[in-house]
Amino acid sequence: MADHQRIHPVPEPEQEPPVQKPTVPLVPRGSFRSEKGDPEKQQQEPPLRRTIPYYPPLKPPKKRCCSCKRCLCCTCCLFFLLIIIIGALAAAFYFVFQPKIPNYSVDSMRITQFNFNTDMSLLFATFNVNITARNPNKKIGIYYESGSHLSVWYTGVKLCEGSLPRFYQGHQNTTVLSLNLSGQTQNATELLQALQVDQQRGSIPLNLRAKVPVKLKIGKLKLMKWKFLVKCRLDVDSLSANNAIRIRNNDCKFSFKL
């Protein structure tokens, strides 16, 4: 009789209990956590990557630019406004007072001395000149101040010099001035030779120059000091002492400056 097979139960393999993650840090009591932190978290966190910061391009400040433009615009407006005001005042002054340029002319000339020394190296000259000054203005007077200077020149050489007296010339006034001009010229040999040639032709060119400081009077107001510049070109027939000298040409030009 066959043996009955016995079935013995096979014991199941023991299952290992699941490993529980520590819920408390694996650090002994009384010790401190590492500065590097939890090693488990360090393994889970991705490594840090270095990123370059992004800076947006700088834009010019708009407010400052606008303020500069506004300031420049205001300056230009003030400048043009000042020009308009000055132009309006000048136009009002012209229409109210109607200023006119003074006129000057050399009426006559007489030579009282025109002598050379023995070696012809020095020339002594004394001229008496009559000058007519005309003020054509109806509402402007002229104060002729001290410090004026007049001179007579021949071929770039100064022969004599003098000055105007100090006086006041009223509205539409004509004043005749008799002036004595004297001087001496060195190295006059070449001057004598040129003078003899011109005297034979009967035309001797002379230049009279005047610098006169003046002040204008408008109503009761006396303005600042100006300087009249007068240049007269003369043609005379001779330069002999105690002889009547005839003026053939008399052309005077006037200008002024501050």
Automatic annotation (TrEMBL):
Stored Gene3D superfamilies: 2.60.40.1820
Swiss-Prot/TrEMBL keywords: Membrane, Transmembrane, Transmembrane helix
Protein name, UniProt field: Late embryogenesis abundant protein LEA-2 subgroup domain-containing protein
Region named Disordered: 1-53
Lineage, broadest ranks: Eukaryota, Viridiplantae, Streptophyta, Embryophyta, Tracheophyta
SUPFAM superfamilies tied to this protein: LEA14-like (SSF117070)
Ranges where the Late embryogenesis abundant protein LEA-2 subgroup domain occurs: 131-232
Organism encoding this protein: Datura stramonium
Subcellular location(s) of the protein: Membrane
